[in-house]
Amino acid sequence: MEQTKEYIQTWDLDQIFTGGSQSQSLKETISTLTKEMSQVDESIELFNPAKASANDLAGIINQLGPLQKQLRDVFAYIGCLSAQDVNDSDAAVLVAKSGDLSAKMGAVSTKLNQKLKEINDEAWTEMIQSQELKEIAFSLSEARRKAKEMLPIDQEVLINDLAVDGYHAWNQMYETIVGSMFVTVEEEGESKQYSMGQASNMMSNSDRNVRKKTFDLIQQEWQRNAPLFGQSLNHLAGFRLQVYKHRGWDDVLREPLENNRMQKETLDAMWTAIEQNKEPFVAFLSRKAQLLGVEKLSMYDIGAPLGKSETKVSYTQGANRIIEQFQKFSPQMADFAKMAFDNRWIEAEDRAGKRPGGFCTSFPNKKQTRIFMTYSGTESNIATLAHELGHGFHQHVMNDLPIQNQRYAMNVAETASTFAEMILADAAVRQAASKEEKVALLEDKIRRGITFFMNIHARFLFETNFYEERKNGMVPVERLNELMVNAQKEAYCDALDEYDPMFWASKLHFHKTGTPFYNFPYTFGYLFSLGIYAHALEQGNDFEDEYIALLQDTGRMTVEDLAKKHLNVDLTKPDFWEKAIHLCIEDINEFMQLTE
């Protein structure tokens, strides 16, 4: 009976706040939050680092924690409103308001952290070993260490305040422009308008003419707005570089590595292992070109399915498949997914006016999550849905931890999501009904690896080179296109025919101000989850509890310590990374044999 239940494709946000962008309860919450933040600010003002006890600090933390949870709920809710309808002007006003709130909270946290750095080391060590604080010792020590690397308090608060209408506003402008963009495609004699997100879904169409035509239209639309995006990208990068300069930081990777609780040696070991193992992936691209009947693939061919079959999988079928496969690895994961579908935590409807892409956002106060994507029935959509549910599950197992220990970095956030995606991909390959189906599914799985090893490598190379040039002044659009294509050629080892010069404009991640270098953490998460997946296959039934324990530790230690504790591996050495890459190469070998 359960199997026949149809799941609804739109989310229910009323469980969080009622009334959408006109919500009265949201307005009241924002007003209360603002007042309570001022009260915490006063408490911090009175906090004397020279005389403070663990009890005094715990008092402030206990005041601050619930506000941080509530603010996260407000922030996530407004993000959901603006994503579901890019033309909702009231939501745009709320986005600006949430930026102000965030800056206020940033200033409060900065002030507290600056006071923490004034506590002498001996008193500090004693303080964080106390009963009241030892559970959040990692988070507090991290905040104190970062405060020591910052500018004096009044300057950091000023940067925070100016960033609202300076730095972060460039990102908002980018999203507003993208929301108003569309392409007009001729289909069966009539013109159809597609949002940029809907149009990019057409890159998985089996007809090369459709892909090429749509790709060209998409390029034209990005080119039309390139001067605007060139300005916004240059300005947000300029702002970032100025802040770094004043803090005395000379490496643009310093902040992203800090944010990801990761050493430079780990990042280098990962990219080195990838660069030394690209040959099989190049061979795969060459074989795929042969199977599609072209000499060399172009960027718009990478997502093309092999074979004509484009069976659409209904949303409910996709949901049931995800629940069924999660069940085999972790019943708790399956229960979580079922709850998300049952309670309408997912916005998946295929309609115009939604922003492109997918995300999972959390409401720690309500202990809920929401997932956003556009579902059109493809295998790739099911993978995205599983991916976002993986994020949701990660948050779900953290819900009862102190809010300070729920702040896990993006690289480990991408681990749970990629792990969930892998469960689905692997099961699909195993259950393939024919050789053709197996080839198509293996291709889909390998293609995801190519995204992490080549596409994201190109993003990392582009961003590294762009920031280097930006230090000397504005980088014009033509040069941005050139840097983008050069990065793609290097990352794809010259294996493609046509590249995507406008990718710097179309990829939202380059324009995200909250997260600098929004690229390498994905590749880290993918490979780290492959390592965990291999471990899971060895462990069998004992795995679920171990996996949940690992996820729960993601907010309270560095990634190197996490890997050592739970997998007994050293991430600064290439061995772990190579082992994980070889799992992908095994898939390629099987694909090559099947397509000989």
UniProtKB/TrEMBL annotation:
Metal-binding is among the record's keywords: yes
Pfam families listed in its UniProt record: Peptidase_M3, Peptidase_M3_N
Cofactor-binding details, from the entry: Binds 1 zinc ion.
Keyword Metal-binding assigned: yes
An individual GO BP term: proteolysis
Family annotation (InterPro entries): M3B_PepF_2, OligopepF_N_dom, OligoPept_F_C, Pept_M3A_M3B_dom, Pept_M3B_clade3, Peptidase_M32_Taq
Oligopeptidase F N-terminal domain span: 116-181
Keyword annotations from UniProtKB, A to Z: Hydrolase, Metal-binding, Metalloprotease, Protease, Zinc
Cofactor: Zn(2+)
Molecular function terms, GO-annotated: metal ion binding; metallocarboxypeptidase activity; metalloendopeptidase activity
Peptidase M3A/M3B catalytic domain boundaries: 202-581
Recorded family membership: Belongs to the peptidase M3 family.
Designated name of the protein: Oligoendopeptidase
